[in-house]
Structure formats: structure tokens, C-alpha cells
Amino acid sequence: MAVGKVTFSKAEREKLAEVLWLLNWISVVTGVTLFALGLFLKVEIQKWAEVMSEQGTLYVPHMLITTGLAACCINYLGGKICLDCADTNKFLRWKLVMMPYIICTFFFTSCVLAGALMCYSIRSQLEESLFLGLRNAMRYYKDTDTPGRCYLKRTVDMLQIQFQCCGNTGYRDWFQIQWISTRYLDMTSSAVVDRLRSNVEGQYLMDGVPFSCCSTFSPRPCIQQQLSNRTAHIHYDQQSQQQNLWRRGCRQALLDHYTGIMESIGLTVLLIWLFELLVLTGVRYLQTAMENVLRLGDPDLESDGWILENSLAEMARSNFNIIKNLGKCYQVDDDPNINIPTAAAEREVSSRQVQVPVTG
Amino acid sequence: MAVLKVKFTKTKRDKLAQVLWILNWISVVTGAILFSLGLFLKVEINKRGELMAERDIQYVPNMLIAVGLIACAINFLGGKICYDCVDTTKFLRWKLIMLPYIICTFFFTFCVLVGALMCYSMRGELEESLNLGLTDAIRFYKDTDTPGRCFLKRTVDLLQIHFQCCGNNGYRDWFQIQWISNRYLDMSEKEVIDRLRSNVEGKYLMDGVPFSCCNINSPRPCIQQQITNNSAHFNYEHQTEELNLWMKGCRQALLEYYTHIMQSIGLAVLITWLFELSVLTGVRYLQTSLENVLRQGDPNSESDGWLLENSFMETARTNLNIIKSLGKNNHIHTSNNGDPNINVPSTSKAHYGPDNVPPKQITEGS
Predict the structure, then answer these.
(1) What GO cellular component term, any one, is given (chain A) (predicted)?
(2) Side-chain half-sphere of B365: how many Cα atoms within 13 Å?
(3) Whole-model pTM?
(4) In this structure, are B35 and B125 located in the same domain?
(5) Closest chain A residue to B161 measured between Cα atoms?
(6) Residue B312's closest CA among B29, B104, B4, B100?
(7) Nearest residue of A to residue B181, measured between CA atoms
(8) Cβ separation of A158 and B222 shorter than 8 Å?
(9) Which of A97, A127, A292, B321 could share a disulfide with A303, CB 3.0–4.6 Å?
(10) Torsions phi, psi for B364 (to 5 deg)
(11) Cβ–Cβ under 8 Å, residues A153 and A141
(12) Residue B317 domain flag
């Protein structure tokens, strides 16, 4: 009735212990890889943290970092245990630790799986964060004299140059905000004053974009001003317009960049999870095989190893009963109102019963 | 009289052979590193090949690549030789090859040193090449419709953005050439025609720069047109404005970049050269000590190892004599066979008739 029962001879047990020792050390290396991947993702997110609104996306790299460190410790301990398991005497040292160790590792492995799935699920939260962050970044582009926002202009320019993008969704986003500070506007000029008065909020809006939106692929010098006015520039046809500025929005560009990174990381973490599961299964077989050998008495005999002693349903039931009994013990001791007949009252009842037939 | 004589016991010889085997394999790795450094330099130079005029600078990476490959081959052979040198019987196989091998390696090590020095001396030619190349690149910036120059605009823009530089010596280089093509100038506008007429060559010159010269550190939006005209922009003084455009010239920026690369490579090659020299010295000691052991007959006895058997002057003199006698042998042969006019007295005895009596000297008066 055991789940996944396999018989192990002595030589097979020793071989299993050696192989598991090696696999545990490989798992330490994969744990370091996990840690490094988490660190890499954290650095990448921090690089463009100024254009993201909240930092809620940082829980993914933090999860990966802690899981990687935990993997190193757990697998290091597992390596030591498996090395000792080849010898039945040394196994006695670890006998009591092994069951808790396996349970811990099982929960830890599910954390690794959670980490992998998180990498894939973060996309929508990232998109929202980028949308708000980029909108604010563009709004504060001109505030190079405000503490805390001095370098936002530089960050946005570098972003647009490096990722070959312009604006949030497209270059027209720049038409809707004032990106030239009033410090650099000549307030005595009538053109400037007219433009400031032409809209409700008194902002200097224009159909122009910063220089970082210029495409390096364009055959003609960059046109940054009067983009909506076709007649302002000679031979400004459809093709010239297409090639003049970067067409993609920066939100889409950054989203693609981060999605690519996180899909690769997620795949690697999934592979690591499968490997850890394999190692855990091997350790479980080794533990049960060694315990059965000790029960039989002779270290050179064959023994059975399994994953679960009974079927899954029975296991769940017995564990549930254990937990219920734990609960029941506490209940009986505490409640004083339950009517429990004592031994003295019983004797009184029986003596009254004896008296009645004598008088009648 | 030997130069740097050292005594070697049998165990010392064996230890030396083993150590030299490991060092030779490390030298193979350093040869591979040398090869990859040469390849890296070649790729970096070709990346910006459009901006350099002549290509005389290609000899430096080519030299490094060749030297790296030869180092791998020579040290691989050296490793095999040193591995066999532990056993005196196996050494007999290599005995005749070892001296030529050592001489070859000596000349090769000299090539490595030349390669290292070349890295430091390349700077002057590189500067000249960059100067001419950048001048042409800026002049052909506008020719995006001419085959062969279509991508020069993109190359120059990417260069200025990436290296944070503008123009050849500075941004004023852009004022002296026409960087906007006539295709994009409105010839019907009076202002354009005036500007074209205002200079001898009929070029559209302006005090403006392309967008790639814009400095991302500037607190204000980039001023690209009418740079020298203070009144055209509010609150702007171009003499004191340093953050608006990139101030460094691209020739200076590229020169610094390549000089930095070549100094690092030159240092690595010098260290490789010192290492190769020490390996060569070890192999020479091993060769001389093994030959002396063979001369003595007993493979287990002590023997001497040296760099040169006699002092340096004597070795040079003997080698020169060998070369001279080689030349003289040739000379004597040709004069015997070629020149009939040399009076060479024959060695055969004169035969004076059947009784072999020399003729009497005829004296006067008898």
C-alpha cells in the first residue's frame, strides 16, 4: 500500500547516497545561480526605478534572493547528511533530523515554484507601474531645479536614446505636457504669452519633442518642432515622418525588456525547481530505506524505500486525526461545565438503592 | 667560464622538467589570451573602420594574433619535450631538436617584445588616421543618398551619442561644413538663397549642430540652432554655457578610448613576454644539464646546467667564425673553379727528364 515502493540492496543504498551527495552539491551551485539571478533582476529594476511608480515589483527579486540563500544552506546540509547515510552507524546521528529536514525541504521547494510563477505573473503590475511612472517622469521633465527631480530629465533622455522610444505610448504624449521650463521662456514675447493663454491650465504646450526622441536611422536632419505642420518642412512626406522620430512608446519598450528578462529567469527557476524535487525524492527514498534497514536489524540486508508509507488518502486522514486529537486534549482539560459523574456520587447512589428493599 | 652555471641532482632535474611542463601549458593558455586580445583589438578597430582614413594600424592586431598562435604551437611542443625530459632515454629522441627549438623560441620571444612595444607606438598613426577619417565623415554626413555613404550619418550620430563628443576638435567643426543636404532645403525661400550666396563655395553654412551633439546633462532643452547668437534664446550666453552640447572633440574621445585599450593590451603582452623568457631560461638549463648527464654516462649523477658554455664574447666570436668560414668555403671553391687567372702553384713535382736532374743555370762568361 506504500506509494512508490522500491527495494534497495546494500550496494544500491550506498550508490544512492553517493549520487545524492553529488546532486546536493550541484544544488548548492544552482542555489547560488538563483541568488545571482535575483540580484541581477534587482539591479535591472533599480536602474530604471525613477520611471516606475511604486516599488511593489521588488518582491520578486527579494523572493529569488532569499530562496537562493535558503537553497544553498538546505542543500549543503543535505550533502552532509547524504554523505553520512552510506554508513548505517553514522545515519543514526541524523535519524531524528531527517524527517523534519525532508518536510522543510518540501515546503522550500514549493517556495521555489512560487518564485518561478511570480516571474510570469508580474507583467500586469509592472505595466501599471510603468504607465504611472512614465507619466510622472514626463510631467517633471522640466523641473531640473527641484530637489529630488534634478536628474529626471537626464534619466528620461537616456531612456529614450537607449531603448529607442519616445513618450509613454508614443511621441504625441509630449504635445500634452509642458516640457520646457518657464525659466527658459521669454515672457515678454507675445508668441509665448499667446501660447500660455491658449489653454486652460496656462501651460506652454507645443507640437515639439525633446532631442532624445530623434531617430538615428533618419536620412534627414531631425525635425523636432512643428511636427503637426506638414508645410513647415520641405519634402516632409509620410516616409520622412515615419523615420524621423522613434515610433515606439517607452512603456512598451521597457515592458518588452523586463518581460524578456523575467521569462528567462522564470524558465531557469522552473528547471531548478524540478531538479530540487528530484533531489528531495532521492533523499526521501534514502531515508525510508535506511530506517527499514535499521528496523530489520542487519545492515547488509535488502530493504524497501517509499515516498509515503500508506496511500495519500490514509496519510491525510491519520494526520488530520492527529491534529484533531491535539485539539481534543486541550478541550477536555479546560471546560469545567461538562457534567462528569465522579466515583463518590456513584457509591452514594448504590448505597441508597440497597437501603430501600430493607424497609419495604 | 660558463654563464650562470647551476648544479642539478637527478631529483632536481626531474622536478625542473615537471615544473617546466606545467609552465609550458600555462604559456599555451597565455598564448591563447594573446590571440584573443589581438582579435579583440582587430574587432574594435573594424567597428569604427568607417571613421578611420588609412588602415596602416591593422598591423598591430595582426601581429598579436600571429604571435599568439605561434606561442600556442611553440609552448605545446615545449610541453611535450619537457614531459619527455624526465626520462633520459626519451630525451635522446629530442636531443637534436632542442637547440634549434631554443633558438627559435628566443627569436619568437623577441617578436613578443616587439609586439608589446608596437602597442604603445601606434598612437601617433592612429591620431592621424582618426583626424582624416572624422573630417571626411563630417563632410559626408549629409550624403545619405550616395551609395557607400548611406550609413555614415547614423555612424557619426551613434559615435557622438555613445562617446559623448561633438565634431572633430569641437562643435565648431559643424559650423564649417554643410551638414543639411540640399534635398531638405527650401530653395524658394529667400533666406536659404542668401545663405547659400554668402560664401564662396555656395554651401549652406549655419551655426547649428546635429541633435547627437546635445548634452543629456543640460538642465534646459537642447539649443541646436543659432548657437553663437545670445539674443536668439532667452537667458543664454554661449561663451559660458558648457552643459548645452558635448564639449569634447570626437578625435580626442576615440584616441583616449583606443589608447586605454592598447595600454592594457601592451601591459598584458609585456607580462607574457617576461613569463615566456623565464620558461625559455628553464628549458635551456634543462637541455644543458641533460646533455651533460649523457656526456657523463650515468643518468643518476649530478650535472651542470648553464645558459652559455663559454662567456658571451667567446660564444659570439665562435659563432662569427663559423659564419665566416661558411662564407670562406664558398669563396675558395668558386675561385678554384671560376677564376683561371689566379696563380696557384701546383703541388706536383717538376719532372726534369728521365734522369731527373734540374737544368744547370746558364752563367755569363763561361
Answers:
(1) plasma membrane
(2) 0
(3) 0.79
(4) yes
(5) A161
(6) B4
(7) A220
(8) no
(9) A292
(10) -80, 140
(11) yes
(12) no
Alpha carbon of A211: minimum distance to chain B alpha carbons (Å): 6
Site from B143, B160, B166, B234 to mutate, A interface, most A CB atoms within 10 angstroms: B234
**Quick one: closest CA in B to A185, which residue?**
B234
CB pair distance less than 8 Å for B221 and A180: yes
Q: Are residues B31 and B90 in the same domain?
A: yes
Distance CA A253, CA A169 (A): 10
B12 has a chain A CB within 8 A of its CB = no
Which H helix or E strand runs over B274?
helix B250-296
pLDDT at residue number B365: 46
> Between chains, do A181 and B235 touch, taking CB under 8 Å as contact?
no
Is B354 within a domain?
no
- A181 interface with B at CB cutoff 8 Å: yes
Q: Are the C-beta atoms of residues A129 and A56 closer than 8 Å to each other? A: yes
The alpha-carbon gap from A204 to the nearest alpha carbon of chain B, in Å, equals 14
**Residue scoring higher pLDDT (B310 or A291):** A291
Nine-digit cell string for B73: 604551437
> In chain A, where are the structural domains located?
3-139+252-308, 146-179+203-250
B10 and B103 both lie in a single domain: yes
Note whether residue B324 is domain-resident: no
Q: Tell if the CB–CB gap between B211 and A185 is shorter than 8 Å.
A: no
Residue B299 CB partners (closer than 8 Å, separation 6+): B10, B88, B293
Q: Given A217, A221, A234, which is nearest B154 (Cβ)?
A: A217
Same-domain pairing of B43 and B121: yes
Cross-chain Cβ contact B161/A216 below 8 Å: yes
If asked whether residues B33 and B178 sit together in one domain, one would say no
The 10s digit of each residue's pLDDT in B149-189 is: 899 999 999 999 999 999 999 999 999 999 999 999 988 99
Using pLDDT thresholds of 50, 70 and 90, give the confidence band for residue A360.
Answer: very low
Asked whether residue B124 falls in the same domain as residue B271, the answer is: yes
Indicate the number of domains in chain B: 2
Angle in degrees, 0-180, between the axes of helices B59-84 and B250-296, rounded to the nearest 10: 20
- Is A224–B211 a contact, with Cβ atoms under 8 angstroms apart? yes
Backbone φ and ψ for A307, nearest 5 degrees, come out as: -90, -50
pLDDT tens for residues A70-110?
Answer: 999 999 999 988 888 877 788 888 888 888 899 999 999 99
Distances B248 to A153, B223, B224 between C-alpha atoms, Å: 22, 17, 16
Give the amino acid at B243: L
Give the residue, B248 or A292, on which the prediction is more confident: B248
Interchain contact A235–B (C-beta under 8 A):
yes
Q: What is the ipTM of this complex?
A: 0.79
Q: Which residues contact A77 (CB under 8 A, 6 or more apart)?
A: A101
Contact A144 B219 (CB under 8 A): yes
Residue B313 lies in a domain: no
* pLDDT digit string, tens, across residues B347-361: 666 666 666 666 665
The number of CA neighbours under 13 Å toward the Cβ of A79 is 14
Same domain, B177 and B303: no
pLDDT digits (tens, 9 = 90+) for B189-232: 999 999 999 888 889 999 999 999 999 999 999 999 999 999 99
pLDDT for A340: 61
CB B189: neighbour CB atoms within 10 A? 11
Structural domain containing residue B34: 3-139+252-308
User: Chain A contact for B110, CB < 8 A?
Assistant: no
Partners of B209 on chain A (C-beta within 8 Å) are none
DSSP string, A11-36: HHHHHHHHHHHHHHHHHHHHHHHHHH
Q: Does B154 touch chain A (CB under 8 A)?
A: yes
